[in-house]
Structures are given as C-alpha cells and as structure tokens.
Amino acid sequence: MARPRTPILSQDRIVTAALELIDETGTLTLPLLARRLGVSMSSIYHHVANRAEIVEGIRELLSRDFPRPDPSLSWQDEVRRWMRAYRRIMVAHPHLIVEFSINPVTNETTLRAYEDLAEVLESAGFALETILEAITALDSFVCGSALELTALEQMWASYADRDLALGRAQRAAPWAAHSPEAAFELGLTGLILALERL
Amino acid sequence: MARPRTPILSQDRIVTAALELIDETGTLTLPLLARRLGVSMSSIYHHVANRAEIVEGIRELLSRDFPRPDPSLSWQDEVRRWMRAYRRIMVAHPHLIVEFSINPVTNETTLRAYEDLAEVLESAGFALETILEAITALDSFVCGSALELTALEQMWASYADRDLALGRAQRAAPWAAHSPEAAFELGLTGLILALERL
DNA sequence: ACCTGAACACCGTTCAAGT
DNA sequence: ACCTGAACACCGTTCAAGT
Hints:
The structure is a homodimer. By secondary structure, the first copy, chain A, is an all-alpha fold. Helices cover 67% and strands 0% of the residues of chain A.
C-alpha cells in the first residue's frame, strides 16, 4: 500500500484509539493498538516518538476536563472541585493511573491544571512555602485513591470469611468495601481541615 | 550441571536478590535476576510460580517491619506510627509501589498489618462501617505519597524557570519540592482530624 | 528434586524499501 | 510524507532432558 493519498493516522486518532483500548482491555500495547487502527505497528512511529508519548497524549486529552478557577468560590470549594474533577477522571479510566505515574508530566494542559490550583492557593493567601506542600499532599491523596480503585477491593475479598476486625467491618458494611467514594470524601475533608490550620 | 547436591536456590534467596535488584536498578526482570543469582532463568520457576509471586514475597518480607499495636498508645498515635512505618518502608524502596499496586495482597504478614490497624480503630470505638472507610483513606494517602516520590519531583523541575504560581512557590521554597516529608505530615494530620470528627 | 537450554508467544523500536 | 515488512533486543513462561 505504501503512502496513501490521504493519511490514515494522526496523533489524535492514535491517542483516542489508545484510550479506548486501555479502557476496554486494561492494557495498552502497540500490537493491539495497531490492529485496532487497521494499520501496521511501525506506522504509528511516524506520528509519535514512542509509547510514552501516547500515554502523555491521553493525559493531555483527559486534563481538558479540569475546571478552570471560579473567582466566586472559596478556596475550599475550589480545592474540592479540583480534587473531585481529578478523581472523576481517574474513576472513568482506572487503568491509567499506573501509566501516568511512571512518566513525568510534560504537556501544557496538565501543567496548567496544577498551576490553576497553585494560583487559587496563592490568592487565598497561603504562604509560598506551603503551596508545594499542599499540592503534593492533595495530589498524593487523589492519586492514591485512584490506585486503590483497582487494588484494594480485591484485598477486602480475602477478609470476608474470617473472624478478624476487617472481616467484621466488612460484614457490617459490605457496601463500604466497594464504595471508595466515602473514603475519598473523608480524606478530602481532612486535607482541607489541615490546610485551614496553616 | 543438572541437579546440584545441595540446592542453589530457595524462595528466600530469590526474593532477597529480587529486592536488591529492584532497589539498585529500578526494575525487576527475570533475566537480570537469574544473572545475579548465577543461575539459568528457568531455574527460578522451580521455586516460585511466577514473577508476581516474587513481588508478593518482597511485600511479605517488608511487611515484617510494621509495628505491632501498643495498648499504651492512643489510637491517634497508633495511626501515626502505622502510617509512618508504611511510608518509611516505601521510601526505602520507591520503585516497588507500582509493583505492589498491580497485584492483590495475598500474604499473611501484610494482611496482619492491616488487621492490626483495624483492631486499633475497633477498640477505639469506631463504628464498624467507618473502619473500612478510614483504612481506605489512610492507605490511599500513604500509597499516593509513595507514588509521588518518583513522579512529582520531575514535574516541579519543569516549573522552576517560569513565572507562574508554581514557579514562584518553588523559588520561595526550593527545598519543598524535594521534601515530600512535610506534605506527608500535613496530610496525615488532616486525616487524623477527619477521623476524630467521626 | 533441581538445574539447564531450547522454544514459544509476547513486547517496544528501528530501518530500508516502497509510493 | 506516510505506510509496510523484516529485523532486533528485550520480556515472562513452559518443557523435555539431564542428574
């Protein structure tokens, strides 16, 4: 076939297909991606430098769903909105958190989302030295929560039939093991309390 | 060589070497592990079922460093002790967090550590339904903090020379970007505050 | 029981060859 | 510029063959 009159591939097409693939199958591999695109594996390298660039493209795409700051909101509400948006994104694509945490952020859209959060805290009067601390803590918690989505529920399962505190807790609240939402809100509340004390 | 008079390998030897390997190189692969053990790759499979079992062996090994509950401590101090121990373990072996989060926990030692924490909360009077929530939030935060160790500092670097809030924050506190310890303590304080309100 | 080498089905990446 | 097929250096896993 060689070069087609109109290009089959593009960065966008590749990134979109990669996102679908990882959402459906849980993994992102070049052979499967090429198959889905109806193209040879090596063709992909004419549009992206490597696999990491595809992952970064997905991160860029998803980062567009972060809300922009709203001056009418308190910083607490801004933080809650930012964190819940982050979580919503990762819940929709749970297998991506590991991919994201392996490569550093380089795209502007994602960096902009962090920058927005920093500006919210800055204009709320937080001391500059505490802003990095605060963002690190918030980011740690939301990333960790996303990580748990795929991991922790399997652990609860191994406790269900044992007479231990965890087993009792689970029998008392069978929904809790599958409702990490409540745990997220608990932690978010705590983090904001800690920030208010600064 | 075939079968040696006295076995060269054992689960312990394999797991120990695997831990050294991942600490030194950042990755765990069977070929490199075999080389380090001075053995053929397929020999390993006579002692462990697969790669995941090696990772689980490492988790078991490290989990022995969790403190046992101390009845003389308040539940707050118990939680702090447990979280800091967890963090200390992961800081010493930052590349393992991704490995751990991929496979479910199956070994007794690690399960015991979670069970201990559950019992601390139970005898502190926490409602059973809230125990899973609390442990999930705590675990999320400490895992996320470990994940950041390798990831976030690279991101701060890309901000150092820009006139943005994050850049300003970093220039005001250059140490903060490399001291996730403070962020961890901030979040831990917040989580305990949230638990106290339950 | 325990080690080996060869084989298998993967993976990501490169590159000369085509249009 | 853009697609292909072949090649390369990896990876984890299996298995018959040796003692």
